[in-house]
Amino acid sequence: VRVIAIDGPAGSGKSTVGAAVADQTGLEVLDTGAMYRAVTLAALRSGTDLLDGTALGKLAASLRLSVGPRVLLDGEDVTHQIRSPEVGAAVSVVAAHAPVREVLVEQQRAWVEEHGGGVVEGRDIGTVVFPDAELKVYLTASPQARTHRRAGELGATGAEQLGAVAEGIAERDRLDSGRAVSPLQVAEDAHVIDSTALDLDEVVKEVLALL
Ligand code: DC
Predict the structure, then answer these.
(1) Of 50, 181, 187, 191, which cross-links 126 as Cys (Cβ 3.0–4.6 Å)?
(2) Which tens digit of pLDDT belongs to each residue from 174-196?
(3) How many whole angstroms separate alpha carbon 169 and alpha carbon 144?
(4) Would you list the DSSP string of 43-64?
(5) Is the CB of 121 under 6 A from ligand 1?
(6) What mean pLDDT value characterizes the chain?
């Protein structure tokens, strides 16, 4: 099956680029970050200890997740809730636990089987989930560019809000890159695209050219 892996840090443009590449190739797109966010929302709601990997793994396995244009958690539409600051602040902690990752990685592989391939975006797609992907792209951009993109998505304005977004991104970068299990890293055979000075159309063109 045909898999295009898109990895990179928060705000690097993965979702926008992934959607456009899916559109151009006729593949469907899977946002694996939304899966980690949905498990995090469920953990916060149930009061599960965010340091208890075993409990979080069990919780993840008990959930019915559906990730598409809308994100459903046991049938409830949580598309907006999973983007809240509370979930954003906790998701890197939840995603660091091996039992959680085992459950979600298995679901990601099953999703690709069911859909006959796909554009899959996340942090460990080219390194761990689909090491044999047809194309691996590692998208990056300067912290400033990523802050501005994320702020735009969130509708954040003003120095104080921008500062908070920048801090949130820096903290997630630190946790996602520094964790022991499946850290954010560039796969050996990934194509690195720095989008700091490119608009996302140009990035999509580059990805399609690589394909
Ligand atoms: O892409 P995003 O910012 O919505 O991802 C949210 C968090 O989920 C991110 O900070 C780390 C985690 N994540 C992960 O560990 N592995 C993935 N494949 C995707 C996301």
Answers:
(1) 187
(2) 999 999 999 999 999 999 999 99
(3) 10
(4) HHHHT--TT-HHHHHHHHHH--
(5) no
(6) 95
Element at 118 (helix H, strand E) = strand 117-122
| Cα 76 to ligand 1 centre (Å) | 21
**Rounded to the nearest whole angstrom, what is the distance from the C-alpha of residue 172 to the centroid of ligand 1?**
9
State the pLDDT at residue 88: 92
- Tell me the pLDDT tens digit for each residue of 140-165: 999 999 999 889 888 888 999 999 99
Q: Cβ(146) to ligand 1 under 6 A?
A: no
CA dist list (Å): 10 to 77, 89, 151: 23, 12, 11
> What pLDDT does 154 receive?
83
Q: How far is the CA of 104 from the centre of ligand 1 (A)?
A: 11
Which residue has the CA at smallest separation from atom 10 of ligand 1?
92
Confidence (pLDDT) at 61:
98
First-to-last alpha carbon distance for the chain, in angstroms, is 15
Number of the ligand 1 atom closest to the C-alpha atom of 15: 1
**Pairing label, strands 71-73, 65-67:** antiparallel
Phi-psi region of 182 (alpha: psi -120 to 50; beta: other; left: phi over 0): left
Among 80, 79, 83, CA closest to 91: 83
Q: Is 184 in the pocket of ligand 1 (CB under 6 A)?
A: no
pTM score of the predicted model: 0.95
Span from the CA of 121 to the centroid of ligand 1 (angstroms): 9
- φ/ψ (deg, to 5) at 208: -65, -35
